[in-house]
Amino acid sequence: MKVIKGNIVSATGFGELTILENGFIVLDKAGKIAAVTEHLTEEQKRLPLMDYGERLILHSFVDMHLHAPQYPMLGMGMDLSLLDWLNTYTFQMEARFSDVEYAREVYQRLAADLIHWGTTRVVMFSSLHTQATWVLMEELEKAGLTGYVGKVNMDRNGGVNLQETTKESKRETLRWLDGCERFQRIKPIITPRFTPSCTDGLMDWLGRLAEERNLFVQSHMNENLEEIRLVKELVPDCDRYWQTYAKHRMWKDHTVMAHCVHIDKDEIAALKEANVVVAHCADSNINICSGIAPVRQLVKEGVWVTLGSDIAGGAQLSMAEVITMTIRSSKILAMQKQEDGNFLSVAEGYYLGTVSGHKYFGSGEGFCVGDMFHAIVVDDSDRISLGRKMTVQERFERMIYRMKKENIVAVYSEGKKVLG
Amino acid sequence: MKVIKGNIVSATGFGELTILENGFIVLDKAGKIAAVTEHLTEEQKRLPLMDYGERLILHSFVDMHLHAPQYPMLGMGMDLSLLDWLNTYTFQMEARFSDVEYAREVYQRLAADLIHWGTTRVVMFSSLHTQATWVLMEELEKAGLTGYVGKVNMDRNGGVNLQETTKESKRETLRWLDGCERFQRIKPIITPRFTPSCTDGLMDWLGRLAEERNLFVQSHMNENLEEIRLVKELVPDCDRYWQTYAKHRMWKDHTVMAHCVHIDKDEIAALKEANVVVAHCADSNINICSGIAPVRQLVKEGVWVTLGSDIAGGAQLSMAEVITMTIRSSKILAMQKQEDGNFLSVAEGYYLGTVSGHKYFGSGEGFCVGDMFHAIVVDDSDRISLGRKMTVQERFERMIYRMKKENIVAVYSEGKKVLG
């Protein structure tokens, strides 16, 4: 057991911050939170103490949607339209991951960078390559991350060297799942790329597999208008995009749907009813001109909303940057709708980028007794003096807006220090 | 004389890149560009060579609008509406600059950070304090920056401890100008904060002073709708905001107007006719919910557009980040107007954040013979392998999106190496 001390900023609800100055978090041997307190008991005082002094202790980030094989192309092709971008960069990039050595090099770097940026839990797309997907899972686990990784399924509308036959897709999915048993903290998740990439036959098989093996599902939905039209064309018996997943048993509790940009009342009701998780990807949605998702409205209406970097449609791996882009994006919508002040606050953005994602892994709100400890320690001592003492909340807000890699001086994942 | 070698990426026009791989820039003794060439003459080969190898040589950035005394509050108060933000943070913050020692500490840091982020030329607001404004000019000059700094004038609608009488404002402005003669590269610029802050009497006096002494002018215009309404109320004889400046001889060649978010045909015509420079501040306009300026339209219609970080409405000093936020902001407008593809390209953003600003200082487009050399050297060797060779243009695009302080390994201002 051990004790961690610092200025604790806990997201105890959507938009609700609980600040404990010079507070203590007691961890048990398994890395679970045993106590969060202002004063230690005599017994706790005898435990080894990690004193972070004036530094901030924040929730670590959760990245609920990103494409690992697109990491090398971060920040590239941003002038292209979605289809050109997919064909010129994305599909060619992903096809390279048939090369396992290359995959190892990229995924080692990705895993290290995630930790450096304070992201400890992920829900992630790999490519369609079985071998490379195992490598990704290995590297994430080695770096100390927790999460879900999916071998991508796509048996239609792929790129050159980036498509499977239905038979291959099924065979490789089973082979991949068999090889996943050795992982402790990185679990497989069923991953049809999106409806346009998967035939009905494959979708049906994946849905049944997810059900039989009790696996979660992730995919994309309602990212842009052209895609929505395409889905209608491809699956004429479904009125709504979500029904193309529901039809095959994949519209269910804990299914993660990236984007959900263009969304109406009925779709919101469908999300809520099934407890499907929205992974909102503000930076990507702007960069590739998908649209602006009504993120605050979704939350207010009771939808489970989390955030994703969506690299490489998104140009930043840092979830602090993703949070502030999410806030900006919500401000743009507030301006468009002339709804003064109806934008995400910093506290709300922080909640979405941390706790709302941690809940996917069974954690509660805030730093809760019994939960695995996932946190970052932030040193903002390079801050410019305001000419007066800054409150912890001011320092926190500023760090969400200004966090650089070097501000993150320690990272805890599953109660273990994985950086610093 | 000396020679600089590297991969030169020159913005030779709006959206036009000229790339010289392993090219040379020859500098004369005064720091002016004597040649840009693929091959050195025998004589040039004997000059001292600074070989930057595979690194990129880019134009340095020009920040055409920022508030120096707001630097300490960067990233703070982002949940507040404009008026609360001004009263809770901004005016209180600026009032602190009556303390010259505090000013010294902040401005030393600001000047150093500007250079670290590759900004070598600025057009900047100080506060209304004469002494602190000199300190700012000193520190900028010491750090190697070139630019224009204005002691702010405001004789109405200020904050507590942040307003002058008309008489004080005039007296201090003259005193300030007298003390500016000692500066070589930092010049004074006449700076009525904006129409709501200055009485007609003061405006008139400032306009005449600018004319008599042949000084440029900077101010704010059409930032948000409430402000526009207020100006109409305050100056009922002017139909348009710009006329409140024109009336007092301040709507003229090289006048810098920050924002110009809400703008119509007539105002665009007025900007063009007078050769007034727009300092577009995308990040700030989003953060404080001012609106989205039609930046690409302005350029296309022939308005002189440059970029500003507008700290601390803007949350980032890095002009690379400002450029990509400008691009994002233009993409949002393209989506709103359903004008597919009518957004700023990376090359266009680069032009606006560099060359368009350098032109304010008399430079031409691209790296031109005869111009003072203003450049940054960018090391992107920490990039992740794409599994193939990246072109210089790809590396450039990626660096505009991903530039961190540590990528900027050398900075040249007025031909002198000021960093690295």
How is this structure best described in words?
- The structure is a homodimer of 420-residue chains.
- Chain A is an alpha/beta fold and 420 residues long.
- Helix content of chain A is 37%, strand content 23%.
- In chain A, the strands form 4 sheets. The first copy, chain A, has a 7-stranded mixed beta sheet.
- The longest helix of chain A is centred in the C-terminal third of the chain and has 18 residues, at 319-336.
- Chain A is globular.
- Chains A and B meet through helix 3, helix 12 and helix 15 of A and helix 3, helix 12 and helix 15 of B.
Distance between the termini of chain A: 19 Å
Shape of chain A: globular
Global mean pLDDT of chain A: 97
Strand content of chain A: 15-25%
Number of helices of chain A: 15
- What is the quaternary state of this protein? homodimer
Helix and strand layout, with pairings?
2 copies of one chain form a homodimer.
Chain A: E1 2-13, E2 16-27, E3 33-37, H1 42-45, E4 49-59, E5 61-67, H2 82-95, H3 100-116, E6 119-125, H4 130-143, E7 146-150, E8 152-153, H5 166-178, E9 186-188, E10 191-192, H6 200-213, E11 218-221, H7 225-234, H8 241-246, E12 256-259, H9 265-274, E13 277-280, H10 282-287, H11 295-300, E14 304-307, H12 319-336, H13 346-353, H14 355-358, E15 375-378, H15 392-402, E16 408-413, E17 416-419
Parallel strand pairs in A: 1-4, 5-6, 6-7, 7-9, 8-10, 11-12, 12-13, 13-14
Antiparallel strand pairs in A: 1-2, 2-3, 4-15, 15-16, 16-17
